Amino acid sequence: MAHEAVFRGRGVAKFKGEGEALVTGQGISFFGGVDPDTGKIREGGHELLGKDVTNRVLVFPKGKGSTVGSYVIYQLRRNGHAPAAIINVETEAIIAAGCILAEIPLVDRLDADPIAEIRSGDWVEVDGTTGFVRVKRRVPRH
């Protein structure tokens, strides 16, 4: 039986998307850290190394690195490897600009810590217009 939870945050990129969650407690640098041709995390030492962000709801604390990261997010969209949505604890300009350019829903400042509340494999619906995030949990939380 699926358990659901609904969270509210700040909608940053006003689009809608859904997909299976890919969650990390580490920041992500899209410039150099994500391959725009494959959608795979390639940053050495990252806990998601080798994981594919394509069509996933990517949940991470915040972005890091170069402003070129915005363009890499846009390249991911053009190459068919964009995430379905992004949820940050607190986003910043690089991620926000990239998501707006690539039309990827982006929500941050949830009323609960998304890193603690969402697990990889959960099905997540993100509404960047309202800031609502609906999580269909695969494994109930105790």
Report what the structure shows.
- The protein is α/β, with parallel strands linked by helices and about 140 residues long.
- The protein has one domain (about 5-135): Glucose Oxidase, domain 1 (3-Layer(bba) Sandwich).
- About 20% of the residues lie in helices and about 30% in strands.
- It is built from four helices and eight strands, in the order βββαβαβαβαββ.
- An eight-stranded mixed sheet has the order 1-8-7-3-4-5-6-2.
- Helix 2 (about 70-80) links the parallel strand 4 (about 55-60) and strand 5.
- Helix 2 runs parallel beside helix 3.
Instruction: Please trace the helix and strand order, writing H or E for each element.
Output: EEEHEHEHEHEE
The named CATH superfamily: Phosphohistidine domain
Low-confidence stretches: none
Global structural class = alpha/beta
Largest sheet: 8 strands, mixed
What is the domain total for the residues? 1
At the third CATH level, what is the topology name? Glucose Oxidase, domain 1
* Level-2 CATH architecture: 3-Layer(bba) Sandwich
Radius of gyration: 14 Å
Helix content: 10-25%
Count the beta strands.
8
> Looking across the biggest beta sheet, what order are the strands in?
1-8-7-3-4-5-6-2
